TrEMBL record, chain B:
CDD domains: ABC_NrtD_SsuB_transporters (cd03293). It comes from Pseudomonas alkylphenolica. InterPro entries: AAA+_ATPase, ABC_transporter-like_ATP-bd, ABC_transporter-like_CS, ABC_transporter_ATP-bind, P-loop_NTPase. Pfam families: ABC_tran (PF00005). This is Taurine ABC transporter ATP-binding subunit. Keywords: ATP-binding, Cell inner membrane, Cell membrane, Membrane, Nucleotide-binding, Translocase, Transport. Belongs to the ABC transporter superfamily. One of its GO terms (molecular function) is ATP binding. Residues 4-233 form the ABC transporter domain. NCBIfam families: PRK11248.1.
Length: 279, 264
């Protein structure tokens, strides 16, 4: 039987396919790397030739030097690490709260008709509103402290995770549910052993989208009302026309967003290796 | 004594004019391998879903060991046509899944799962991932999983329908071996006539509109295989061919009767 074919086929294909994959991913990465290098070079050339005043675009060296200064001495009474820590702390707290509440609520929406009837319109009502539009209301209710910023990001992250979870739960393979039921699964066991793992790829996609929205909301919220954080750093530097800090802040914000996205993709590959496999 | 008993079972989907099954009487006892054969629309899948408890009959009574069947349960193990395994677990955990649900401690359930994997000739496949298996291997894992939960009866929903002809033949032989070794009563549905005749100790032929049993046969080809005769020798035996042709003609006479009725 085919029990013999599988290991043989796996052995034969393993040296050839990764080789092809590596070569292709390398060439794509080369193109991306080259683009990045060209842009940096252009930046350096434009500033070195003094075509643009440093007030509008500081040179890469100036930004790097400023980065060192910010790391060691700080800006506006906090170092870069402290600003970064403040921003990451806020999004981390909001993400934790969103995951802890949005997944159970998403399961309820996907699983239960009444829960869907109550919660679906509420989420769909507030989801399309840009978070900054209801920030003033949150500030009126909760003040300008940490709570209002965390709450704002929490709301921004909550909707994508809840909706993705509900979608994942609704699209669980009914045969798998029946199989578990005929093995004696209770309702709670169905959720724990079949529904939740089935929906995990969708949940992780929801977290990815939520984190992206949350990060941009956070920085925007810090631009408006904060005394620490990357958004605050950029905003206050702009007020004093300290352009190198502004550029540095933007670069760090972009880097963090990129790192979050990459980290979540890696997590997705690790947690749901069956996703996308033919089975 | 019958284990599983169906008395005057009818089933109708809400809103449908015709019932899918009408007045079905059926019993399944120990040592039996009951095969329900019928064309599509004859209600054989509905029949299995009723016994499994996935749907409830509109009339009649289903009982197992004298206890009425209500909803799905571990005492009626099901092997599905398409892959119903859980890809987030490896093969061993899939086979042990029913025991895990029942709260059996890990060493105990893994020992049992290994035993079942050996029974379906997959002893070395415990750590494989589900997506690394071929179609036939998946069905064998599905069979091992159903057996590991130690059900009273085994229900098989066109278990080999999606397999290629070679694998299907091997799976039929494997099923007979497993059936003989575990002594579990089996209820299997199929639309493959040769498969039905080869496997069944008891064959029921279903006809559509509404689904009803039009013929019951007692056969011994499976037992002959279990007694050591080769599958090919049995399937080329004139008596096997004769039985197969008889069943085939019954299916077609039902079909043409239905067509005549429609045009009358």
């Amino acid at each position: 039987m085919s029990s013999l074919e599988v290991p043989v086929a796996a052995k034969r294909s393993s040296p050839s396919t990764p080789a092809v994959k590596i070569r292709r991913s390398l060439s794509t990465r080369w193109i991306s790397g080259l683009t990045l290098a060209t842009l940096l070079l252009l930046w350096w050339a434009v500033t070195a030739a003094e075509w643009i005043e440093p007030l509008f675009l500081p040179s890469p060296e100036a930004v790097l030097a400023k980065a060192w200064l910010l790391l060691t001495q700080g800006y506006m009474e906090s170092t870069l690490w402290q600003h970064l820590g403040a921003s990451l702390g806020r999004i981390g707290l909001a993400l934790g709260a969103a995951i802890a509440t949005a997944i159970p609520i998403g399961i309820a929406i996907g699983h239960n008709r009444i829960a869907r009837g109550i919660l679906d319109p509420l989420i769909e009502f507030y989801r399309p509103i840009p978070p900054l539009a209801y920030l003033p209301l949150i500030v009126i209710w909760c003040g300008i402290g940490e709570l209002s910023k965390v709450l704002l990001i929490y709301l921004a992250i909550f909707a994508p995770i809840a909706i993705a979870t509900a979608t994942g739960v609704r699209t669980v393979d009914p045969t798998k549910l029946r199989a578990a039921q005929s093995l004696g699964a209770t309702r709670a066991q169905l959720i724990r052993h079949v529904i939740l793992p089935s929906a995990l790829p969708d949940i992780l996609t929801g977290v990815r989208i939520g984190l992206g929205v949350g990060w941009s909301t956070l920085v925007a919220a810090e631009l408006i009302a904060a005394t620490s954080g990357l958004g605050f750093m950029v905003q206050s530097a702009a007020q004093f026309l300290v352009t190198d800090v502004v550029v540095l802040g933007i670069l760090v914000i972009a880097l963090i967003a990129f790192a979050l996205e990459m980290g979540l993709r890696a997590l997705q590959r690790k947690l749901v290796p069956w996703h996308g496999q033919s089975h | 004594m019958a284990l599983l008993e169906l008395e005057r079972i009818s089933a109708q989907y809400p809103g449908a004019a015709e019932p899918v099954l009408a007045d079905i009487n059926l019993s399944l006892g120990p040592q039996q391998l009951l095969v329900a054969l019928g064309p599509s629309g004859s209600g054989k899948t509905s029949l299995l879903n009723l016994i499994a408890g996935f749907v409830t009959p509109s009339a009649g009574r289903i009982s197992l060991d004298g206890v009425p069947v209500q909803g799905p349960g571990a005492e009626r193990g099901v092997v599905f046509q398409d892959d119903a395994l859980l890809p987030w677990q490896d093969v061993l955990a899939n086979v042990a899944f029913g025991l895990e649900l029942a709260g059996v401690p890990r060493p105990e359930r893994e020992r049992k799962a290994r035993e079942m994997l050996a029974l379906v000739d997959l002893a070395d496949f415990g750590t494989r991932r589900i997506w690394q298996l071929s179609g036939g291997q998946k069905q064998r894992v599905g069979l091992a999983r159903a057996l590991a939960a130690d059900p009273r009866v085994l229900l098989m929903d066109e278990p080999f329908g999606a397999l290629d002809a070679f694998t299907r033949e091997q799976m039929q032989e494997l099923l007979l071996q497993v059936w003989q070794r575990t002594a579990k009563p089996v209820f299997l549905i199929t639309h493959d006539i040769e498969e039905a005749v080869f496997l069944a100790t008891d064959l029921i032929l279903l006809a559509p509109n509404p689904g009803q049993i039009v013929e019951r046969l007692q056969l011994d080809f499976g037992q002959r295989y279990a007694a050591g005769e080769s599958a090919r020798a049995i399937k080329s035996d004139p008596r096997f061919i004769e039985t197969r042709e008889h069943v085939l003609s019954r299916v077609f006479s039902q079909r043409s009767a239905a067509v005549r009725q429609e045009f009358a």
